[in-house]
Design brief:
Blueprint: H1 21-25, H2 45-48, H3 55-66, H4 75-81, H5 86-98, E1 102-108, E2 114-120, H6 137-150, H7 152-156, H8 176-187, H9 189-192, H10 200-214, H11 220-228, H12 239-249, E3 268-270, E4 277-279
Antiparallel strand pairs: 1-2, 3-4
Helix pairs in contact: 3-5, 4-5, 8-10, 8-11, 10-12
């Protein structure tokens, strides 16, 4: 009985300086623990017993740390998973971000979409916790960053899940030159407002709508002004949807069809003087041989 097993981890001290209230008062928590060998997540006491984080934030941090790389942790996805609602979830995410457990940045993908990249930190660089010192944070960040960067292509495959763009008008005669001019109009919109940068897929959807405007005797400059004037001041999350709406809602009418009156063409006559052919309603002399009065 005099020997101590040094391989066994000493029990963690409680917040009451080692005083066991359960033995004195019959209350307090006791643990019935089983060893996990699969499907478990290691969480530090610096998070589980954080003095400033709310219970919602602590629980949300544990949930996020248990998710695989590439899982969706935006407010809408979490609100569908938990009953707390968007307001409480958004507040909890801000708490975790303020204390270093989350890093969220807005980046633009190769397709031109703005997405939020979220990095979950199981130890935000601080040492000391009631479970003892943690491993150095720098190697853990290095291990986490590489898989998350490689997960970008998987997140970029999300556009097929987006709502389809509104329908746009179709030209009566989609000539290749007309469609090429329409594509040039769409490509030049971002020079006036950088928010109107659209992907090649969105441009392919919008080209027929611009061509329908050009068929209505509008110049490319006039179509450009119609699509870029009086834009809303807030950020444009789906500029292609806004352009599709304007192309449909503000479509000008077709120009009136005007039939050109054929010019009067008199029959050919032979000049009585020089025998030269000329056009006149009746035989006579041509203008060259007609004496001047």
């Amino acid at each position: 009985m005099g020997t101590q097993n040094t391989s066994v981890r000493p029990p963690a001290e409680s917040r009451n300086n080692g005083k066991n209230h359960s033995s004195q008062c019959g209350g307090g928590v006791t643990h019935d623990n089983a060893r996990h060998t699969t499907r478990f997540t290691v969480v530090g006491n610096h998070l589980a017993q954080h003095d400033e984080l709310s219970l919602t934030a602590i629980g949300l941090a544990v949930h996020i740390q248990s998710l695989p790389t590439g899982a969706q942790v935006d407010i809408n996805s979490l609100a569908r998973r938990f009953p707390e609602g968007k307001t409480r979830i958004a507040g909890a995410l801000r708490e975790l971000e303020a204390h270093g457990y989350l890093r969220r940045t807005r980046v633009r993908t190769e397709q031109g979409r703005m997405v939020t990249r979220t990095v979950s930190c199981n130890h935000p660089g601080r040492t000391g916790g009631e479970d003892g010192p943690s491993p150095p944070p720098r190697p853990r960040r290095t291990v986490e960053k590489a898989p998350r960067r490689r997960a970008l292509p998987a997140e970029a495959e999300e556009p097929p899940r987006r709502r389809a763009l509104p329908a746009v008008p179709q030209p009566v005669y989609p000539a290749p030159d007309l469609l090429q001019t329409a594509l040039g109009v769409l490509s030049g919109l971002r020079r006036t407002d950088p928010r109107l940068l659209i992907s090649a897929t969105d441009a392919e959807h919008l080209v027929p709508g611009v061509a329908a405007w050009l068929e209505r005797d509008l110049t490319p400059e006039a179509v450009h002004r119609a699509l870029t004037t009086a834009l809303p001041p807030e950020p444009l999350h789906r500029p292609a949807a806004l352009l599709a709406h304007r192309l449909t809602a503000q479509l000008p009418p077709l120009p009136l069809f005007r039939t050109e009156k054929p010019s009067a063409r008199h029959p050919l006559q032979n000049c009585d003087t020089c025998d030269r052919a000329y056009r006149a309603p009746e035989p006579g002399t041509c203008g060259t041989c007609t004496p001047m009065t």
